[in-house]
Design goal:
The complex is a heterodimer. By secondary structure, chain A is of the alpha/beta class. Chain A has three helices and seven strands. In chain B, β1 and β2 form a beta hairpin. Classes of the chains: A alpha/beta, B alpha+beta.
C-alpha cells in the first residue's frame, strides 16, 4: 500500500513539474532577448538594402543581424525612436533601412551624430517594399570617421 | 513677364502636389479577437501608409513579422503556422475614400470616412469596406478605423482541434498619423 502511495506521489510530482515546465517555458516563454543575441549576419546598411531590393525574401529576413553605416536621420514617433539609413526616394519618401531601437537605447539613439558610423544590432522583420525593417535594436558601439 | 508667370505657375503646381500626398512609416495597426480558449491581441507600429487627398487613393503596407504579441509562443504560431510570414511577408490594402467630397483636407476637424478597396493577406485578395475618421490638423492627418475581418477568407485555417476555441473573425484597428510629403 505504501508503495502505491509512493508511486502515485512521484507521478503526481512529475505531472506538476511537467505542467509547470510547459506553463513557464513553452506557453509563457519569454520573448527572445535581441540585445544579448549573437548576430547571424554582419554587413553594411547599404548592402542589406541592396540585397532586399534584389530579392524581397533575402536571407536576412527573420534573423538577428548587425549592420553598420552612416545614419541619415533619427525619427521620433510617439514613444518609438527609429534610426534611419536612407538610400533613395520613392512613393513613400526616403527608402532604406529603418531600425527601431529598444527602450534602453532610445536616449543614446536620440543623441547620435549623423557624421558617425554606427553599429546597430536587431531582428530583421523583412522588407515592406520600401524599407528593410530592423526591430528591437541595440547600438553596439560607435566609431569616429577619420577624415583625411 | 512670361518667365515670372511660368515661375509662379510651377510654384503653385509644386505646392499643390506636395500638399496632397501624406505619408506615414510608423502607423499602428492592431487586431483583437476574443474566444473561449484565448484572447488574441497583436500590434504593429511599422505600418507604411500613403494618402492622396486629391484622388482619395489610400495605400497601406504591413510587414507581417512586425506584429508583436504578448506571448512569444503566439507570435511564433502566427508567423509560422497561420500567416506564413516567410512565404507571404507583407499584407496590402489599396483603396479609395468613397465619400471624398465630404472631407475638407484643408480645414481642421474630424471627418467621417468610408474606404473601399482590396486587402491582400496570405497571398489572397478580397474586397474590404471600412468606416473610420480622418482627424485633420495643421501638421497632419490622423486616420482611424475599426473593422472586422474573417481570417478564413484569406486561406488562414484553424486546426480542427481548435475550431470553436479560437475566433474566426478578428477586429482590426488602425491609428495612422500621416504627415505631408516634403
Amino acid at each position: 500500500m505504501k508503495k502505491v502511495i509512493k508511486i502515485t506521489g512521484v507521478l503526481f510530482l512529475v505531472a506538476v513539474l511537467a505542467a509547470a515546465y510547459v506553463w513557464f517555458f513553452v506557453y509563457n516563454k519569454p520573448h527572445r532577448n535581441f540585445e544579448k543575441a549573437k548576430p547571424e549576419i554582419v554587413e553594411s546598411a547599404r548592402q542589406i538594402y541592396q540585397n532586399f531590393k534584389a530579392n524581397p525574401r533575402a536571407a536576412e529576413a527573420g534573423k538577428v543581424i548587425e549592420i553598420y553605416g552612416l545614419p541619415t536621420g533619427i525619427e521620433h514617433s510617439d514613444s518609438l525612436v527609429v534610426v534611419v539609413f536612407a538610400f533613395q526616394k520613392g512613393m513613400f519618401g526616403n527608402e532604406g533601412v529603418r531600425c527601431t531601437v529598444l527602450p534602453d537605447f532610445r536616449k543614446e539613439a536620440s543623441k547620435l551624430s549623423l557624421s558617425d558610423t554606427i553599429y546597430i544590432k536587431g531582428f530583421c522583420s523583412g522588407y515592406n517594399g520600401t524599407d528593410v525593417i530592423l526591430e528591437d535594436c541595440s547600438i553596439i558601439h560607435k566609431k569616429k570617421i577619420i577624415k583625411s | 513677364m512670361k518667365k515670372i508667370i511660368l515661375f509662379v505657375f510651377i510654384l503653385l503646381i509644386a505646392n499643390t502636389s506636395f500638399a496632397q500626398r501624406y505619408l506615414s512609416k510608423t502607423g499602428s495597426i492592431s487586431f483583437y479577437s476574443d474566444a473561449p480558449l484565448e484572447k488574441i491581441e497583436a500590434q504593429n507600429h511599422q505600418v507604411n501608409c500613403a494618402l492622396d487627398t486629391k484622388s482619395g487613393f489610400f495605400v497601406v503596407k504591413i510587414l507581417m513579422r512586425s506584429f508583436i504579441f504578448e506571448k512569444a509562443l503566439m507570435q511564433e504560431h502566427f508567423n509560422e503556422d497561420y500567416v506564413e510570414s516567410d512565404k507571404f511577408p507583407n499584407a496590402f490594402f489599396k483603396g479609395k475614400i468613397v465619400n471624398l467630397k465630404d472631407i475638407n483636407f484643408s480645414k481642421p476637424g474630424i471627418y467621417s470616412a468610408v474606404i473601399e478597396g482590396q486587402m491582400t493577406i496570405h497571398g489572397i485578395t478580397r474586397p474590404v469596406k471600412a468606416k473610420g475618421t480622418f482627424t485633420i490638423s495643421k501638421n497632419g492627418i490622423l486616420a482611424r478605423a475599426k473593422f472586422p475581418l474573417k481570417i478564413g477568407n484569406y486561406g488562414i485555417s484553424i486546426p480542427d482541434v481548435l475550431t470553436g476555441k479560437i475566433a474566426t473573425e478578428v477586429e482590426i484597428s488602425t491609428n495612422i498619423y500621416l504627415k505631408p510629403l516634403k
